[in-house]
Specification:
- Pfam families: p450.
- This is Cytochrome P450.
- Keywords: Heme, Iron, Metal-binding.
- InterPro entries: Cyt_P450 (IPR001128), Cyt_P450_E_grp-I (IPR002401), Cyt_P450_sf (IPR036396), Cytochrome_P450_monoxygenase (IPR050121).
- The chain has about 575 residues and is an alpha+beta fold.
- It folds into 2 domains: about 120 residues, no CATH class; about 425 residues, Cytochrome P450 (Cytochrome p450, Orthogonal Bundle).
- It is built from 21 helices and 11 strands.
- A hairpin with a 1-residue loop joins β9 and β10.
- α13 packs across α20 and α14 runs antiparallel to α17.
- The protein is globular, with a radius of gyration of 24 Å.
- The N and C termini lie far apart (about 50 Å).
- The chain binds protoporphyrin IX containing FE (HEM) and 2-acetamido-2-deoxy-beta-D-glucopyranose (2 copies).
- The site of protoporphyrin IX containing FE has 27 residues, from α5, α12, α13 and α20.
Length: about 575
């Protein structure tokens, strides 16, 4: 391995020394805010040093955040990563981030996605393609899929019941991700992934191949360029091909099925999955249509499960340590769905008449989800304008920077904790801050919110919350994700108390009871953090126990509420 490395790297290093350093390294980006670069290693050295100060395996966002702090919170920061990667600019200000994500004179569909994201998000003619798939993600359509989301949630509930009985700890994140995987398979293709089996041999074929593929991405993450690992790259290639073939055969079957049944497919039996909707009106399945469809479906499957699973894991974590938030959610569910929290009763409400009205009325729960996505954003965007484009951004202090040829990363973790926007509570979990946004509380695209003041009397510019990013190429699955999360919370939140184990565990007092800090949250022994594994994942996969609440007291004094469901250990 070492020999390989030296052989491969040597000519490159020499060439790079000769050509790059003296010509470009110090001139082109000299005016950008940045840490002190090293002559040979640019900022690789500084990044390495900052990483060493941190906890093991930590995600890069908090590292960028401490660098921003050291630099006095500039609107953007430059990193010279040559020769292992393109130079990079981290965007810390929402005003600049908006200039990246919106349509501009140069880019009708906003700044192009970075070539580093190629593997997951491809497709040049995406505008046409996205049009074909949009109907499958429209909120009204999604509401017709609530029964399907509830079916999958019942399997999740079975797992929780098992753990409530045994009092064993379990990695919550694995269960939420497998749940959201099941849901995305059903919604995009009408296929049962069987992702929620604990025995992986019983999981669907797609899940098994995907699991093998994704494990390869965890290795040696981003430290060295891909061509340093030929064997790993080859295995990735083989597994990707297998996934392609599997998806193609599903698409072909689906297409054939629709051709045979064209006549009967009206009314209630109409297929509702994204794939079927996108194939409507295409009597012939050309090679091009097949491969376009395959690539899109693949993007939906990849982008649509991890992120939502992470959102759920952090949501249950916050509910476990913020008693007033848990109470707020439970009270809202009682009010909207009635006091019976049995999954069957909730299901009856959410599949009965007015179900979409109910989901839309979950205002507090929605604010909780929005706040989770502010404090724990699972994903971000990386964009890039080709050299010579003349793509400039302005900072609010009137400076102009040309971002041609650099990877641009809108760092949601920094932007969404901006003190000039969120004030002193920028780092705190405060769902109430969103309660004033009566219209489109969740929608990242709702410009009209800009003028609305929230409950705290503070104006939050829409661009300062960008968990799904913004502009024409934002997340297509945002309504699906948030509807999904609301439904799952509606089924689960009143039935179980989650109890963190290990990292982030509650700091109990001498009598075994949790104690509150001045922010109304339980004190914890240590802080949770995330690691990078394609997305930002809680580092311990969110080890938890669950209990059924024992002593349900509602609407009484504060102490009772806090102690409800907390039997002394
Ligand atoms: C909490 C859950 C989710 C979060 C936080 C999230 C976040 C994001 C972000 C930040 C982007 C990048 C947008 C950009 O580059 O400007 C994105 C893109 C995307 N997401 Fe999501 N996402 C979530 C769930 C989903 C789901 C359920 C789907 C299901 C299909 C999905 C499908 C996509 C697709 C297809 C793109 C690429 C859009 C394009 O390139 O045009 N996402 N998402
Ligand atoms: C979830 O799915 C993965 C495969 O994608 C599997 O390895 C894992 O065991 C599953 N976890 C649980 C808790 O079901
Ligand atoms: C990761 O988790 C920590 C919790 O300590 C949070 O503060 C941080 O914003 C998270 N980072 C990302 C990238 O989600």
């Amino acid at each position: 391995m070492i020999a390989n490395l030296v052989l491969l790297a040597l000519p490159l290093v020499i060439g790079y020394l000769a050509t790059t350093i003296w010509h470009r390294r110090f001139k082109q980006y000299a005016a950008f805010p940045q840490l002190k670069p090293s002559l040979l290693w640019g900022h690789m050295k500084a990044i390495h040093e900052f990483t060493l100060r941190e906890r093991p395996k930590i995600h890069f966002d908090p590292i960028f955040a401490s660098m921003a702090k050291e630099l006095g919170n500039p609107p953007l920061m430059f990193f010279d990563l040559r020769p292992v990667n393109y130079p990079m600019v981290i965007v810390n200000s929402h005003q600049v981030a908006e200039q990246i994500s919106r349509a501009s004179k140069q880019f009708a569909w906003s700044t192009p996605k970075s070539p580093t994201m190629d593997a997951l998000l491809r497709g040049e003619d995406w505008k046409q393609v996205r049009k074909r798939f949009n109907p499958g993600f429209a909120p009204q359509h999604l509401m017709s899929l609530l029964p399907c989301i509830l079916d999958k949630t019942e399997i999740f509930v079975d797992h929780l019941n098992r753990y409530a009985d045994s009092n064993e700890e379990f990695p919550l994140l694995e269960f939420t991700i497998n749940l959201t995987f099941d849901i995305i398979g059903a919604i995009t293709m009408g296929v049962d992934f069987d992702a929620q089996h604990s025995e992986s041999s019983e999981q669907g074929e797609f899940i098994q191949i995907y699991d093998r593929l994704i494990r390869l991405y965890g290795l040696g993450d981003g430290q060295l360029p891909w061509w340093m690992y030929p064997r790993r790259e080859w295995r990735k290639y083989v597994l990707s091909k297998q996934i392609d073939q599997l998806l193609e055969s599903i698409i072909q079957d689906k297409h054939a099925e629709h051709q045979n049944q064209q006549v009967q497919q009206t009314g209630k039996n109409k297929p509702r999955d994204v794939l079927s909707l996108s194939l409507q009106g295409n009597t012939e399945l050309s090679k091009g249509l097949l491969s376009d469809t395959r690539d899109q479906i693949k993007t939906f499957l990849f982008a649509g499960h991890d992120t939502t699973g992470i959102l759920l894991a952090w949501t249950f974590y916050e509910l476990s340590r913020s008693p007033h938030v848990l109470k707020g959610v439970r009270d809202e569910l009682d009010r909207l769905l009635g006091p019976d929290s049995d999954p069957a009763a909730v299901r009856a409400k959410l599949t009965g008449p007015g179900a979409d009205e109910l989901v839309n009325s979950m205002v507090y729960t929605t604010a909780v989800i929005k706040e989770v996505l502010r404090v724990y954003p699972p994903a971000g965007t990386a964009r890039m304008a080709r050299p010579g484009t003349g793509f400039n951004v302005q900072t609010s202090d009137g400076q102009t920077f040309c971002l041609d040829g650099v990877i641009i990363y809108n760092c949601a973790t920094i932007i969404q904790r901006d003190r000039t926007v969120y004030g002193d509570t920028a780092d705190d979990f405060v769902p109430e801050r969103w309660l004033g946004d009566s219209s489109g509380i969740m929608s990242a695209g709702a410009e009209e919110d800009a003028e609305k003041r929230n409950a705290a009397g503070r104006k939050i510019p829409p661009g300062a919350w960008r968990a799904f990013e913004r502009g024409p190429r934002n997340c297509i699955g945002q309504d699906l994700a948030t509807i999904e999360a609301r439904v799952i919370v509606a089924v689960v939140a009143r039935r179980y108390d989650f109890v963190k184990v290990g990292l982030g565990e509650l700091d109990l007092d001498g009598k075994g009871q949790p104690t509150l800090n001045d922010k109304g949250q339980y004190r914890v022994k240590s802080e949770m953090y995330n690691t990078t594994q394609v997305t930002a994942k809680p580092v311990d996969a969110m080890r938890m126990r669950v209990r059924r609440p024992t002593l349900i007291t509602r609407g009484t004094n504060k102490q009772n509420i806090i102690l409800s469901g907390w039997p002394a250990t």
